[in-house]
Write a structure and sequence with these properties.
Layout (H helix, E strand, L loop, with lengths): L8 H12 L2 E6 L5 H16 L4 E5 L1 H14 L8 E3 L4 H7 L6 E5 L3 H10 L8 E5 L15 H7 L8 E6 L10 H9 L8 H8 E3 L6 E3 L3 H9 L3 E4 L11 E7 L3 H13 L1 E6 L2 E6 L3 H13 L1 E6 L2 E6 L3 H13 L4 E4 L3 H10 L4 E2 L4 H8 L5 E4 L1 H4 L11 E4 L6 H9 L3 H6 L7 E7 L3 H22 L7
Parallel strand pairs: 1-6, 1-9, 2-4, 2-5, 3-4, 5-6, 10-19, 15-17, 15-18, 16-17, 18-19
Antiparallel strand pairs: 7-8, 11-12, 13-14
Helix pairs in contact: 1-2, 5-6, 9-18, 10-11
Length: about 475
Amino acid sequence: MRKVYEPRPYQLLMRELMMSRPRCNIFARMGMGKTVEALTGIDMLNAIDGTQRTIVFAPKRVALSVWPREAEKWGHLRDIKVMPIIGTAEDRAKALHQDANVWTINYDNIPWLVEHFKANGKPWPFTRAIADESTRLKNFRLRGQGGTRATAIASVAFEPIKWWVNLTGTPAPNGLKDLWGQQWFVDGGRRLGRTFTAFKERWFQPAWNGYGVEPQKHAQAEIQELLKDVSVALDPKDWFDLADPVMNDVYVELPPRARRKYREMEVLMYTELERDARTHGIEAVNAAARTVKCLQLANGAAYIERGNNEEWAEVHSAKLEALDSIVTEANGAPVLVSYQWNSDAARIMKAYPKARLLDDKKQTEDDWNDGKIPMLLAHPASAGHGLNLQRGGNIIVYFGLWWDLELYEQILERIGPMRQLQEGLDRNVFVYRIVARDTVDEDVLTRLATKASVQDILIASQKRRRLV
């Protein structure tokens, strides 16, 4: 039974931009209805200009289930037929010949899609495109210097594609430099510079520590002004009385032996760990590798190399003990745990035999939402998009931390305040971040906060006036 769609005022802002600007950005937080509005825009354009083929680029899980499910959910979208281009090369080729007007494909298969038509001597058939989670295009560079996926689609991005919409809730997860690649698909470099080099030279300068670049003081305001006419940014806090997640940073102290191992890696870029009564040397070949090893040691286990098999050695259990305190405090309520390393997932599952790993099976998602899983372990890279986990719980624990703000925010929003509101649940969201004191964990927290501030300022600057 299809539902009657009654758009909220902020969704009308999305629609207004899509219908007035054939190439634009919609920066809206998770749960604000970007997908249904994008499909509504396609339906309206079909009614005005005739039905044309639309291609949607999205993370695999989203392309496979979210877009088709959304089209089937609403009554006004009965004329929209969505076909995922997923599976083997044969499956994907067959999908292109199905009765549909919207096709969805995961980003990894974009090069295949472009080459498929070239190899068969057929013209590119899509005249409209949507880049869902458009930050996947942030590494695009001209002359093939960036990511292969974005480079492949760039060859058809303006001809014959005439209508292009970027959708994301996190337009600048790693700072302003993430904007150029996405914006190029909107205007070909007219606003931010034809090349990434020109973009950097205009608004960035070498970082104070000699690594990479940082924006100049005038960059934020100028970039925001240039994007204003082709962007709309929406934050649920402007439209709903949402309580911020209740944040709890749980600090742990490394035991003396673990502290020694950590300091050796930090200073000497080398330490030794024991596994199976054998001593294994662990060496970091550069600063980046040292940071990874330090993060692993802060969590309690680090990887060692034994032949061709990657194995790990446990160093301490301080974070496991902190997790146990959080679980005890939860008093039986389900807990979503974000982990970074398979070694951490294995250690947690050993301590909690009833815990489950999030996988690609719909049944796992359903079991969590039905309260059948007391602890669900999820890696941010696999749980960030297309999952609705809010019914299953309102407690998330970051057992390990990583630098990527987008993944950090995406997994939080799976059960975040907006998702709770969508489910009709009036309850707070509790966030626990387990932090090893005096380690790189603290640097990650600081860096995440810095990136968030840049992005929040960007979104705030792009907010358009509400419809009356």
